[in-house]
Design a protein that fits this description.
Keywords: Membrane, Transmembrane, Transmembrane helix. The protein has 261 residues and is mainly alpha-helical. Helix content is 77%, strand content 2%. The protein has a two-stranded antiparallel ribbon. Helix 5 packs antiparallel against helix 8. About 12% of the residues have low confidence.
Length: 261
Amino acid sequence: MDKDTDDKILPSASATQVSPQTTPTKEPLLGHDSEIDNRKSLRDAHRTKQIQTLRIVQSMLSALLSLAIAIFQGKVYWTYQNTKSNAGAWPSVPNVVPTLLMFSVALAALVFDGSMLVAYIAPGSKFSRWAIMVGGAAHYIVTSSKTVGYTISSIISMTSLNYGNVSGTHTDLWSYTCTDQPANMDSLIQASSNCNTQWASWGFAIGQLFIEVIGWVISALALRQSEKKLSEQAVDERFTAYSADINGQLKDVTPQFAFNS
């Protein structure tokens, strides 16, 4: 073959070009993988919505019960303050600690639950952002304090009632209003009404404990979902990093030729 024929068949050295290396990019998920990813996103969004709904219901019930307890216990103490100057209306040395303790716990719980309820219902408001920031940071501390507070106040109230009935002293306001009083004193201190409201307060406090248990279960579900989501993200990140590393190593050891005719 002559020189002209050789030049037509074989590329010259100057015609040989090496294609530049390009950084591998992550291809978007297609087909089955994309469908799985969409299902996970919808499932996570649905669970988040369920947890938020449970939070709203819990906060609403807790706020209503706390409001009722605060009103009932406040009514008893208000009656005592307005009638204690009447001789024989109340014990000479009354024990108001159980009443004030449950009233204080209910009032504090009402402020917290009411704030969080507003935050859940109106998440875009300025108050909502403040409530979420403060309530979220101290959520577990406040919830624990509520649980302990209602437990202690319920035990103290019932213990005082039982002690007053057994000993016959009736120094606490609950047991005193639940004893037989002269007609004039019964009307003055509203004994029957205040006896019933304190029984209702104690029952609501027990109901609060059940609501707090439900709240802890909801918190556990939310924590589990967050941990699962973080775990899935960590697995995806490790897989992506591993794939990129393997692709880089393969590209480094693979000869790359590109010929232009």
